[in-house]
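The material for today's practical consists of a large collection of protein records. There is nothing in a record beyond a sequence line and a structure line. As an example, a complete record with its sequence and its structure tokens follows:
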Amino acid sequence: MKVLGIDPGTAVLGYGMVESGSGRHPVLLECGILSTRARDPLPARLRILYDGISALLARHEPDALAVESAFYGRNVRTAVVLSHARGVILLAGELAGVAIAEYSPALIKKTIVGRGAALKPQVGYMVAQLLRLKSPPAPEDAADGVAVALTHVILATRRAVLARQVAGQG
């Protein structure tokens, strides 16, 4: 299974492409960031994100696109702008015909670190451990994108194991 994980943002978007197969640990295929200039108009920034995600989807042909869901803080403007970024990400995935999954920040942290309130350095450290890397992916936004992909892989694997166990009992 190949999964493209996305940590959305309009200034910096982190991504990670992870592949896992039966009986082997996940492998990092690619990670990085897409960045836009704050002084550019929002539509131009969204186009950069859309084009970047579309290129990743075309190049890797993943089985799934996993996206961190929006969280709502005190700043409504930030939440609205982030929602625009998530919209173009979801549109790119839908147009590419890729299965899309969304995970909350707390679920990602709990799945990767074991604690829903984990800090970014803890997430990066555990991503490196799970992928058997010498150091966490950099920058932190890329590590977060990889964490989203790993969350999908881990939870999909758990669901598959549970389904096999249930089928075996029937």
